[in-house]
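Hey, quick one: can you model this chain's 3D structure?
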Amino acid sequence: MGKREELVIYMRYSNYFMPTYKEVPSEAEVISHQLMLRAGMIRKLTSGIYTYLPAGLRSIKKVENIIREEMNRAGAIELLMPAVQPGELWQESGRWEYYGRELLRFKDRHNRDTCLGPTHEEVITDLVRKEIQSYKQMPVNFYQIQTKFRDEIRPRFGLMRGREFIMKDAYSFDADEAGANRSYEAMYEAYSRIFQRCGLKFRAVEADTGAIGGSYSHEFMVLAETGEDQMINCTKCDYAANLERAEIKGEEGLPGPDNIPMKPLKKMYTPDIKTVEEVTSFLDISEDQLIKTLIVVADNEMVAALVRGDHELNEAKLKNLLDAQVIELASPEQVAEATSAPIGFAGPVDLKIKMVADLAIQGMKNFVTGGNRNDLHLKNVNMGRDFNVERFGDIRMITSRDSCARCGEEIRFGRGIEVGHVFKLGTKYSQALKAIFLDDQGKESPIIMGCYGIGVGRTVAAAIEQNHDKDGIIFPIPVSPFEVTILPLQMHDAAVVDAAEKIYKELIAHHIDVLLDDRDERAGVKFKDADLVGIPVRVTVGSRGAKEGQVEIKLRSQPESINVPIGEASAFVRDKVKKLYDSLK
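Sure thing. Here's the predicted structure for all 585 residues.
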């Protein structure tokens, strides 16, 4: 039996494994999770860990192929690194403790610290420091497509936030900043091509670098109202950022008018009144007249962060302002230790710890704060007279009342799903792991790095979040498990079977990725499964049409169908497939 005949048999539904569900699984919270389970693409093994069934794996492999083509086109070189990593490398980089409990640590039989790799900055830097010693060996960019593991505390949403997942990660190495910038731009452009080729509506937004570190980064966000990430974009200029990164327009926080006198400090008894809403209602003031004092622990140091009552603290911005590795809100016990009061009554007056404040409060006068005593607030508090701030900065979340930080125009909020992230790492890892090279003057310098990640399974899930209806998935053709499905409705009718087989074999001969639904099932079952799985082009062969020499062809994304002569069906379908791909260019 030849290779082509084997392929023909393999792509028959009766010989395939795609178990579908009629009902929505109770465990699935978001639409992509529901539909991937119902369409027979994945099955849960345990919390945050899934088996990729054949149809799901086909979609994942298609995304991987697009990634490989574009990474190779951009000059990156594929390799494969170990999933198990020695703890000593992470200790050398300083991330063994900093990365937190998401890093799955264990001891091997020799009692050596080991972990399952959530990312590979340490491993690739270790390789490069042993192999690259001269500027002549750079620039170079290595990438891999590999299974990662992050021990998420609350894995959810199927492939959106699992513990085990497939990721493409790449790492660039350059001799100078100009080269590093070129590498970054090349990856930015490659990512844009990848997600465009996947048929996704996306946007690149400025982002915080988080646990990876570095000086600058962009997230590639698939636009979807069901996305778990919020982002903003300007209605006029190109500025876009995720909520953690979004900058506040810089004119805030200018000194207040000198002609407003400071009123005498006044103690206010506020029994069991803690929240912003309770305090402002009780004292009959607006939220922007209240200052919240939030106690955080920054790299084991207690810090007070001051923000206006109508604003929310942005922990990512605060971490950057303090140049801290880790920021977390203090526990009730730590708050009591720092302020001599329970949560809800902290204030800056007589506070003995480092104090930083948001720019928005810099010009305020006569405001309300907590009194550092149970059931006490202070009125007519003023900076300079009553307390001093060590440093001001943009440490709050942006709001719909803010304007664009770049051009001052209106901003718009939206939601998205992060599918890719590109980072300028600088020398964070090369300095820590001593990845040094000799420049053209013979001088030693640390290599300048970048890193670039894509969630492969998450990209498939994001495509579903963006493309579905009440009946199921509407796959973009590049990531669909099959391009075409053929539905012979009466398997006992020789004319129907012969017509379906003819079209099927012609499409296979032209390298169309086609699934023949040759099951002996009712027409309704076949239609429902075809809509559920979301294959872009459907060819339906029925008894009446076969007698009249016609078949029905329908795009999953469109409501109407068209009748086409059997002899022209293959060419017609091939043209439809080509146009679907061309529409994404």
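One thing worth noting: Confidence is low (pLDDT under 50) at residues 1-9.
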